[in-house]
Design brief:
With 91 residues, the protein is of the alpha+beta class. It has one domain: 2-Layer Sandwich (Zincin-like), CATH 3.30.2010. The protein has a three-stranded mixed sheet with strand order 1-3-2. Strand 2 and strand 3 form a beta hairpin. It is globular. The two termini are 14 Å apart.
């Protein structure tokens, strides 16, 4: 498991950004705390969430999208594999 810090949040945001996603923090009526804009790589997250909630939301998004490890930087790919390993252990 990893710590819920702003540094961890930045690492997860970087993974999504390297895979072409734009992350925006805005207010709105989100049932699950986030929305993915149809046919575009834009993730909108509730701006009122604290760091832990933002991390959990971005992890949910990572679980629903396919990200080829080849397009990620070496550091991001390593962290992404760690995230996948933690998700597999929790199931």
């Amino acid at each position: 498991m990893f710590k819920y810090t702003k540094h961890t949040l930045k690492k997860i945001e970087l993974i999504l950004e390297e895979s072409g996603y734009i992350i925006r923090y805005e207010k709105g009526n989100f049932q699950s705390g986030y929305a993915i804009v149809q046919d575009k790589k834009i993730a909108i997250v509730n701006k009122f969430f604290d760091t832990e909630a933002r991390i959990n939301v971005l992890l949910d998004i990572l679980a629903t999208v396919e990200i080829p490890a080849e397009i990620l930087s070496e550091k991001s790919a390593k962290f992404y594999k760690q995230i996948q390993k933690n998700a597999a252990e929790e199931e």
